[in-house]
Each structure stands twice: as structure tokens, then as C-alpha cells.
């Protein structure tokens, strides 16, 4: 942007020259003022456009919380819906407070080192709109990460345990990973053309297949693994029993809202649109995201038809989301045909992971680990194979690295592998300890009685869907409403029961 | 506006007049000339964002269709219809990517008048070409998915899933793109953008697709629903209509509201740019399109409310929702070229059109669970014709870049040419869709791939084709788990007292 | 913006200077044309960007209608859902017509006086795009105001009464209040640096804690108060009986959609983003909104756990919305930490209001008066205490007024108080009369019989959730479908009933 950034300097430099025209009877100051007004308006307008883009993208990412809430509610039994929806509300609400106090500082604070950020706690040094808009965008991502994990441990976890791990995840575990990959100071990052990068490449994770989805999925895995499967999920001989969610409608609604929100998640991660290159990248992200999810959904549709002889809508929805989780790392770097290929692979990855986890009697009501962990890992590695060199250069303003199949060099793939492994280890270690401690203090799993009765009744004060049994007839003597009313009421109710 | 050599010479002259040295002169030139690119960047970014977010809003209409359809059918078929809505977007993306987009917009002005033939699978993507970039693909894909979504409503509750897959791919991949090519591509034979060979001096004015999208989807649905016949029990042995209520009014309202939300991408977004390259204040048109859309829908809803109250004695929310959508489907063609008061009039007419079409459908024993043909076909046609009557000249010039002397709305004194173009366009759309989709549905019927068996219909598609029910109830007292465990599993501990235990 | 505003003048002024150089061989006309072309394309880009921003914000505010509809539907009993959702659809649809015909004219018509606007009825003098975009934005606000009121009187109001008060509210009562505060001609406004303001300050209500939420809440209060509580809400001894809404899922869905839409409501109220100052204000609004809602939700979670021993999701949702209603006035003027504090206070305000209203046997199915009226009032006053001077100056381009704790001067607080009181009086007077008249003509409350049977059955032609009793088996003789089909159908249905 050069001169445009420094309004005052623009004015001085240009004015000094143009003022020389005054000797010719020309009002050079007027000319200079005009030029510098143009410059500053343009800077302002560009700022505005980028802020607008980041904010709207953040709102879309936030809309994914609505999607998670509906998807989770539909995927569990009616007796646990209030519980899981409350966790989704708090992923966003409590997540906002912990991300405000410490999370953002650990992730993007400017005084940190390669491993962890520092500063900006409680926004104490926020100055410009860039800080504000980044915070909103990053908070929405942190909430998504916590939302993923809460799916794995649904239907059998104490609410206190949820409060503890969720705060820990959004406040510390996730921010540190995002610092590594997305802060220009992080040790894994591919940003900042000036610095040294891991394997001269750095890890490339555009919108967070690794940073968000793997972290959320693996965190969920440890919780679900340590507390064991839901009662009745595997029978005495270890055969899987279907435990169906209570509403397919909510599953579809949730999946659609997640799809909608993913257009903030992936294209929005460019965090700028006010220049031609960014605009191209953003549009490419939108199309690769669409195609990958679509290919995964279609693959799942036919695969499931072959495997179980049904056109299964819940499976198609999960396949769709698996495709999205996979493309998240590479949406800006792969060509549209590669996105279709990735979607195909993601669908099979999810099917394979589900079969595998069934073997291990691992129970995940939302398939969150299989989906976000498995397809997320696939997506991270896929960039190492099919990330196009030109596209990578567009994003990072530095060339000479890219996927194995384009460049013939495995440097990027190696960086992706190292990144994935470190993310797995870090999340497993911290979240494993966290859940193990909760278990040791008996704060993790609810009692069998509570599980059978359902969390809504035992912890949340009643059912999500109360019947109409509160009607006034019970509170008044039969004559209170007069005879007509009474008989009317009886007729109505008897026809309803 | 480009910084050319003449301009650079002028700047150099200024520099010499100010007695600047060579370096300072270069600074001045760079500074002034640099604006071209920077302002270009801001304009590109704003327009790209406008197009993409409009596409996202149009996509949100799929969520709306999904919920509206689910609520409008019986619970036993909810999964089925929602799956078709998911696949409209997902399978539609693949077929529209591979060939649909090329049929519709490939080749720009070079392609022939009937069908596009270039840029299959985005093989010739170009960021600079307004018709071959990724953002435009996103926007057009969302439209194609909407057309397929309309159709799936008409044939709900009685169609084989295989039949659905076949027609949906055919519609999004071929039938719809050809119509879009006619009306919206620069080389289309009836296109208002066909500057080289303008049909009746004006072309068909269908701004966001009352004809291209809604009539196509509605008529395709009609052919399907007509060929397979009404649902079992829809008309009794004496031919009287039996009410078959959808299972959830809540979902109907949710879906309608989401469609309304998405329509703000569909109509105003169809300008595809909000900052002009040609000096016309496009943002004014966009804002006006949002206003006319709102008013037409609002008027249609209110008209339906009172009309139905008068006819049935009830304030009926699902009818109001359908009326609202009818108003939107009607204003889609003219949202950028009619005045706000005309939008209200159009909404009023749309409500009565829908009521009349429903009467007619009942008379001929046509069964459409979503009223999709009546609504999208009927009100869509109304909207197309209405433009021929009340398109305002100045708006037409703004929105379509028409020059002085262009035909415009009949009632404003613009002659009958526009109306003729609208009518011919509507007839061709109806004929093309009816023939192609009719043949397809008929073939499916012949091969036994269209309608499910009576047994399946009675049991519901969710159970027979999808192995599931949309709603699995449990009693909150153990449900499925209790059955799997030995009865004494919990005896060691105290029995549960409901709600007494709090942790 | 200076020269940028007046395209034609730009040309003249610059050309006059440059033409003086023609003697030196400078093509001054060409240069001037180029520079002014640049300026005008920048202006149109700015216009486009701002229009886009206002429109998207309006769409988000409209999305709040979806939220209201779902929240209301979930919060009432199943037998009244169609009724309340119809009112929500009509708040937007019928509201569009009354706001088109008269509402916008009363609010922003240019020929009015300090008290009420005039002109622009039925858009007859709309010229520029600014009119159209403003109309869309303001219409969405008017609909929100009506949506609030319809919650208070749910489950017991005649549909005719709804049509009357709703038209009156969006067509007259609300527009007049918005004229006072948001039109530059209004007597309460803080806009327009040139004019005299109340207490040299004017009332500061950025997005409408007073103008929208208090008006809606108080209108609802009078309706609910005059028709009395629902049957069975208070038993013969005056003890409160819980009447639960029929679906927690819909409550959560609605709250999330409202949260989503609030990002149009609050940040969108800047109605411009194409300059740096606006961009900063918009981003700050997004942050304060998020933090205030989040703090209120978390406070409510723990407060309710202490008070009633449940983790209550419906209460958390209401607390969240209370936080949003409170921050709406001050989102642009308070610092992030103050937003957290305000959220904390809003949660307790709502809890207190609920306890108080229970004492008075006031019944409000959505807690709309307590929430929008109570927390809205809190938000209006809070700006008088903690509105930061610098931030106020950013928005209004005039300094020297702000919150008591920053400036030590109570002028702003006094203006806020006067504004709040006048809004209360105006709304109470007009809506009180309106509801009293409806009551006098017996058009307000439904009969006891109807109330027991539910509005859906008596006024809307059937239940919102009809059972599957339309299945063909009833219409055909048992043998018509063949034996297999019949038994199949029976199995399915018997398991469903």
C-alpha cells in the first residue's frame, strides 16, 4: 500500500513537490489536498471492506453453533436434548469469556515466543478495529472447536465436567495450537515470508482441519474413551446396538446450518477481500468447499446404499460434514477436481473410521472423533500431496513449496505430517490428563440411574418436550369454569390423548 | 480511466512546471497512476463479496426448502423429502460443475443461441471473465439447486428415490441450464443481455427467475406429480378432496422464514455486482429490489390471511406462508424494474392466483403436497407477465443498461413488445420443460422407477426406503437401554426418584 | 470526504488550477478528468459498500423474526403454536405494509417537526438509494418491536386484537419514538452536531434498548396486564404454577437465531462501514454485544443453579437475550470490560424482575416485559454511567459529553433518564388506551373454553402437530391394499400411536 498507509507522510511528500507550482500561480496545496484525500478515503474504504468481510464471516462461523446445537439435539435421545443444547449455548457464551480473558492472548498476543502468545489478555491493549475484528473471528473458531468435542461425550457426562474441559479447551489447549500454526510467530506456521520455516515450508492449514477439527475431535475422543460407551450401546456379547437420535429433522436442519456457516469458516479465513488476489482466493475456497462436501455426500449416499441397503439421510449428512472437515485445510490450495477427489476419500475415511471404532467398542454419539479427527487428518495430509504451488504462493506470498504431486518435493508433506502428529500428541496429553483427573475425582460420568432417566430430568429440571399436562382443569374444581367449558375441555383433551 | 501514456505525459509536464527532478516526477506519476489498481481492487473485492454472500443466502433457501417440505408432509415421509433437499444441493453441485454451468453460461457471447458449450468442469476458469469465475459458479449453482428443490415438493410422499435421483440430475444438469442460457446468457436467443441480436428489441426481462427458476421447477414438478397421480387417500372414492395435513406447522413456518431470508440473496443478489463499472448506481437498484421483494411478499401474505379467513373461517398460518412465498415467486422477475406500489399490487394478485390455482388443481384431481406447481408455476407466470405490463422505463434502463427507445411496460405506454417477449418466453419455458421432463417422467414410469408401491406408501418412505423414522421417541424412563440390560442390573442401587437427585 | 462528495465541483476546482499550466504544455483538462474520475469511482465504491452493509445488516435483523418465531413457539404450549407463529409472520409481513404506508413517514419523513415526521408516506418521494436501504433496515426494526410485544400476550389473545395493536404499534407508536431519538430532527436525539440538544447532550441509544426493546416490552406489559394471567398460571391461593413451553429445542434454536440476528441489529446500526472510524465502531459493537450476552448467560447459569438447583437451559437463553437487550443502547459506547459488567447486571435484573412480577401475579409467557422492558431500561441508564467520552465522540462527531463515571457530569445520564421516562409514558399511554379499548369492546381476550382448547383448534383450524391419522387404511376397505400391506401398515402405526 506504500504511501497510502501513511496519510500524513503522503501529504508532506506530495505537497512539498506540488507547492513548487505556486510560483506559477497554481494552487498546489489544493491539488495536494485532493490527492491525499483520495488516498486516505481509499485506505479507509479498504479497511471498511475488509472489516465487513471478516465480521460477516465471523457471524457465519457463529451460525455453525446453531448448526451444532440442532445436529447434536437431533442425534441424541429426547431425554438428553436440553443437556446437549445447553453445552452448545455455553460453548459460545462461556467460550467468549474465557477467550476474552486468556485465550486470545495465548493465541495471538504479541509478546509471546514460538510456542505460546502473551499479552492482549482481556483486550487490555486492543487499539484498532483489526484487533476487534480478529477477536470476533477467532472466538467463533474457538467455540466451534469446543462444540465438536461436546458431541463425543454426549448423553453420559456430568455438566461440571463439561464446564471444566470446555473452559480448558477454549482457554488454553486450542489457543496454543492456533498460535503455532496461525500466528506469524508460531513454530509451525507458513506465514511471514521473512522468517525461517519448518522444512522451508511450514504447516499449511488454511481454515483449520488440523487446528480446529483435529483438536476438537481428539479432545472428544479422550473424553468418550475414558468414560466408556453409553449403557446399552454394546450388548453383553459386544455387538453394537443402534441408539437412534430422536429427530432426523433436527439433524438435517443442523447439517444445513453447518454448511451455511462453513462459508464463513473456509472462505472467511482469508480475512481480506479488498484486493483482486484475495477475492480470487475467497471465491475458490467457496467452490472447493461446496464440491468437496457434495462429493462426500453423494459418495456416502451410494456407499451406504450398497452396504446397508438404505438411502440413509443421517449418514449422508455426516458424510457431507466429513467432506467439509477434510477440505478445510486445503480449500484455498487445491483445484476443484481435487476437491471432488478429496470428498470421495473423506466419505470412505469416515466409513472406515466408524467400522474401526465399532471394533474397539468406542462410542461417540455424534461420530465427532471419526468425522472431525479422521477426516481432519485426511485433509491436512491431502494438502501435502495436492496443494498447488501457484495457489500456495498466492496465499503466502512466497513460492517454491507445494504438494508432492505438483512439486515432486515432500517438504510440505513432511511439515503437514509433523504438524498433525504434534497436534495429536499435544491434545491427547492435555485433554487426556484433564479427563483422567475428572474421572479420578468422580466428576466425569453420571450414574447409571441418571443415564437411564436422562440428563434432562435429573440435571435440567424436566423434559425438553413436556406434554400438555399442565392444563388448568387440574387446578380448579370441575365447576369453576362452568359446565360448558368443562365438557368442551374434556372433549378436546380426550381427542388429543 | 486507465493510466495511459497521454496521462503520464501530462503528469511529466506538471513535474517539469514544478521543476521537479526525475525521481520526484516518478513519485508523482506512481502515486496518481497507482490509484487505478487500488480502486480497482476495492471494487473487485466489494463485488466479489456481494456475489458470494448473495450465493450463500440463496443456498440458505435449501435449508428453508428442507424444513418447509418436512413440515408439509406426514411424519412418515420426512426423512425422504429432506434427503432430496440435501441431494438437490449436493448431487446438484456435481452435475452443475461437470456440465450444467457450461450448458448455461459457457462460451459467453460466442456460444450459440440455444445452449452453451464451453468450460465444462471449470476447465477454462478465468478470474476476469464475469461468466466464468468461481463466484458466478457459486451463485448459479445455488439457483439450479433451488429449481430442483421446487420440483421435489410436487412429487413428495410417493416417489422412488431412484426416480428422484434421475430427474434431479437431468433437471440441474440439462433442462434448467438450457433455459438459463436462453434468458440470461449474452448469446441466448431471448436474452435481454443479447446486445447483438435483441429479441423484439428488448428480450425477455426475468431479473431473478420467476420464469427461469420458478416456472421451470414448478412445471417439472407438475409433470412428475401428474404422471404418478395423487397420493393414496388424497381423493376419496367419490372424488372429494381429503385434507392431508403436514406433520408440523412449526417446520413450515421455520422453512418459510428461511426462504424469505434467502430470497434477499436471490432477488437483490441477481444484480451480481453492487459497484458499477459503467457509472450506473447499482446499489440503488439492489436496495430497491430488496424493498419490492419485501412488499410483494407482505401484501400476498396479508391478502391470503383475510381471503382464507373469509373463505374458511380460520386464520390459517400454513396458507399465509404459502401466500407469502407466492408473492416472492411473482416479484422475482420484476423486482428491479417495478415500483414499490406495483409490488404491492403484484402481491395481491399473486395471493389470488395461488388460491385460484389450488381450486383448479383440486378440480382436476391434481395432488401436489407442497402446492409447488400452483405456487411456483402459477405465481411465477404471473410475475413474468406482470413485467410486461408494469416495467418502468427508467428502472429498465438502469438495471439492464437499456438505451432510450427500449420497449417497456404496456401500462406505462411502452408498447406491447415487452409483453410479447415475456409471453413468448413463458410459453417456450413451459413447453421445453413440459416436453423434456414429461418424457423423462414417462420413461421412469414405464420402467417402474417412478412411483412406490401402495404398501410402501402406506407404511411411509422413511421406513421402507430409509430404514428409519425421523422421530424416535423414548419415554424418558430407560427406553432402549433398559431392554438391553438384565432386569437386575440396577437392583444394587436405590431406585431412581424422578427429579429428586441434583448434583 | 471533502472533495469526494461533490463530484462536479471537484472537477471545476481542480481543472481551474491545472488549466493554468497549459502554457507549460500540461494537458490540465485530461489530468483533472482523470483525478475526478478516480474520485467518483471511489465514491461509488463507497456507496456500494455502505449499501451492501446496511442491507446485509437488515437481513440479519430480519433473521431475528425467525428467532422470535421459534422462541415463541417453543415457549408456549403446543396447542397455541400456530397462533403465535402467525403473529410473528405478520409482524414482518403486515408490518411491511403499515411501515410502508405511514410508519416510515412518521419516523423519518423530512417535513416533520421535533415530535413527529411527515412526508415519504408510501415512498412517494423516495429518490436515492439511501432511502430504500434505510427503509429496509428500519422496517426490520419495527417488526422486531412488534415481535417483542406479541410474546407477552401469547396464549390468550384474540387474533383481531393482535391485528389492531400490531398495526398501531408499527404504524404509529414505535415510529414516533424512533423519530425523537434517531431522526436528526427529533427533540431527544443526540445526532446533528449543529443543533441544540437536550441538556447539551441528547439521548444516546445506539441500536434501541429504549427505542425498540422498551417500547415493545412496555406495549406487551399493558396487553398482558389488562387481560390478566393465563388460566391456571396462578392457583386459587395465588401461588405460581409452572406452565412449560412445549419444546426446549425450539427455544434454543430461536435464541441462537436471535443472537445471530443481533449482529445486524447492533453493529449494523452504524449504517456505514466504508471508513476507518465506522469500521472500528462496527467491530467494537460486535465485541461488546458478544461479551455482554455471554456474561449474562454465564451469570444466569450459575445464579439459577444456586436458586433452583438446576442447570436450566431456557433460563440461560433468556438471560442471554437479556444481556443483548441491555447492551443494545451502549454497544458502541462502552468498553469490553464494561460490557461484561453490564451482562452480569442484566442477568440479575431479569431474575429480579421475574420475582417481582410473580408477586404481582403478572403473567408473561415469554418474559418479554421483564426482559426487554427491564434489561432495556438498564441498558439505557448504563450508557449514562459508563459511556466513554471518546467513543461517544467517534459516533456523534461532537465531544464533551459522556457517562458520569468518565466525565463527572450527569448531563448524559439526565438525558437518558428523561428519554426513558418519556418512552415509558408515551408507550403506556397509547398502548394502554389501545388495549383498554379492545378490552371494552370485548375484542381482547379469548373465552375460557377457547383457552382450554387452545387457539390453534379454535381459531386456526387444527393442531400444529396433527397425528398421522390421515393414513389411507381408513379410506379404503381393509383388503384394498392386500394383506401384506395392511399388516405392515398396522405395525407401523401401532408403534407410533
TrEMBL record, chains A, C:
Which segments cross the bilayer?
52-73, 85-107, 135-154, 161-182, 202-226, 247-265, 277-302, 309-330, 336-356, 368-387, 413-438
The GO biological-process annotations, alphabetized, read as: ammonium homeostasis
A GO cellular component annotation here is: plasma membrane
What topology in the membrane does the UniProt record assign? Multi-pass membrane protein
Alphabetized Pfam families for the sequence: Ammonium_transp
Q: Which GO terms describe its molecular function?
A: ammonium channel activity
Subcellular location per the Swiss-Prot or TrEMBL entry: Cell membrane; Membrane
Alphabetical UniProt keywords? Ammonia transport, Membrane, Transmembrane, Transmembrane helix, Transport
- The answer to whether the entry has keyword Transcription regulation is no
Q: Which residues form the Ammonium transporter AmtB-like domain?
A: 53-465
InterPro entries (alphabetical) = Ammonium/urea_transptr, Ammonium_transpt, Ammonium_transpt_CS, NH4_transpt_AmtB-like_dom
UniProt record similarity statement: Belongs to the ammonia transporter channel (TC 1.A.11.2) family.
Protein name per Swiss-Prot or TrEMBL: Ammonium transporter
Identify the species of origin: Chara braunii
Lineage of the species this protein comes from: Eukaryota, Viridiplantae, Streptophyta, Charophyceae, Charales
Automatic annotation (TrEMBL), chain B:
Entry GO terms, CC: plasma membrane
Q: Which Pfam families match?
A: Ammonium_transp (PF00909)
Any GO molecular function? ammonium channel activity
| UniProtKB keywords | Ammonia transport, Membrane, Transmembrane, Transmembrane helix, Transport
Q: Which domain of life is it from?
A: Eukaryota
How this chain sits in the membrane, per its record, is: Multi-pass membrane protein
The membrane spanning regions, by residue number, are: 48-70, 82-105, 134-152, 164-184, 204-227, 248-266, 286-307, 314-334, 340-361, 373-391, 419-444
Disulfide bond among keywords: no
Q: What compartments host this protein?
A: Cell membrane; Membrane
Q: Name one GO biological process term.
A: ammonium homeostasis
Q: Which InterPro entries match?
A: Ammonium/urea_transptr, Ammonium_transpt, Ammonium_transpt_CS, NH4_transpt_AmtB-like_dom
Span of domain Ammonium transporter AmtB-like = 50-471
Q: What family is reported?
A: Belongs to the ammonia transporter channel (TC 1.A.11.2) family.
This protein is called Ammonium transporter
Q: What is the lineage of its organism?
A: Eukaryota, Viridiplantae, Streptophyta, Charophyceae, Charales
